[in-house]
């Protein structure tokens, strides 16, 4: 029997290299609000869904003529436009997905809009790997709240303790912790904070030992 019943993958900067894609969309919103891009502000919202990122940027820039929800929808629209560009797999993603396919159930739980997730999986030929996808836009609260991971497990009739999360962000780590799930982190090389906090950190997906995921199954 496998150690876990379900592996839940984040998508952005976990399965695909899309950090710059998000930044391009964020830059459009900052420019629209007449404010320079803030890396400091971005560090506080990385891992959130598109709507919440737009809301966070709105709170940071404090425009007089737009609401947080309007900024969220604008950011979401620009992000989906950016998703039409080239998106490459993260190192080792194809290898790990192929190794796990047919041996354990897999899902994607991402802050990207659901239509963006589906588009990416279809273009990369990954749709066959995943039983379901879920966007954190579909639940009451996005990461770092546990809602999206709890709902992912519920949809697969899986207890949270039987699910493993693979993430890259501090908000994703917190969401997994709050859901009571084990997690593995594939961090950016410069993200020292998450590397200090996460008990299981690997530099790339294909360096995760299969035995760590599958146990003796």
Descriptive keywords:
217 residues; alpha/beta; five-stranded parallel β-sheet; two-stranded antiparallel sheet; 10 helices
Plain-language structure description:
By secondary structure, the protein is an alpha/beta fold. It is built from ten helices and seven strands. Strands 5-4-1-6-7 form a five-stranded parallel β-sheet, with helices on both faces. It has a two-stranded antiparallel ribbon with strand order 2-3. Strand 6, helix 8 (170-179) and strand 7 (182-185) form a beta-alpha-beta unit. Helix 3 (50-61) crosses helix 4. It is globular. The termini are close together. The model has no long low-confidence stretch (mean pLDDT 92).
Briefly say what this structure is.
With 217 residues, this protein is of the alpha/beta class. Helices cover 45% and strands 12% of the residues. A five-stranded parallel sheet has the order 5-4-1-6-7, with helices on both faces. The protein has a two-stranded antiparallel sheet with strand order 2-3.
């Amino acid at each position: 029997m496998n150690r876990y019943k379900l592996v839940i993958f984040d998508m952005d900067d976990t399965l695909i290299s899309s950090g710059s894609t998000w930044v391009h969309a964020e830059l459009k919103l900052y420019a629209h609000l007449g404010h320079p891009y803030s890396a400091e502000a971005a560090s506080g919202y990385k891992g959130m869904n598109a709507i919440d990122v737009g809301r966070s940027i709105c709170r940071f820039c404090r425009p007089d003529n737009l609401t947080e929800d309007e900024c969220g929808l604008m950011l979401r629209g620009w992000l989906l436009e950016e998703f039409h560009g080239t998106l490459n797999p993260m190192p080792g993603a194809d290898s790990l997905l192929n190794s796990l396919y047919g041996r354990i159930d897999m899902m994607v739980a991402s802050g990207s809009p659901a239509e963006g997730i589906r588009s990416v999986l279809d273009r990369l030929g990954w749709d066959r790997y995943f039983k379901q996808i879920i966007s954190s836009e579909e639940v009451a609260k996005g990461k770092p709240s546990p809602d999206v991971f709890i709902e992912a497990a519920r949809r697969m009739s899986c207890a949270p303790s039987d699910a493993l999360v693979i993430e890259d962000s501090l908000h994703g780590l917190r969401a997994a912790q709050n859901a009571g799930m084990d997690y593995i982190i594939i961090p950016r090389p410069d993200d020292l904070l998450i590397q200090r906090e996460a008990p299981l950190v690997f530099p790339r997906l294909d360096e995760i030992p299969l035995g760590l995921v599958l146990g003796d199954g």
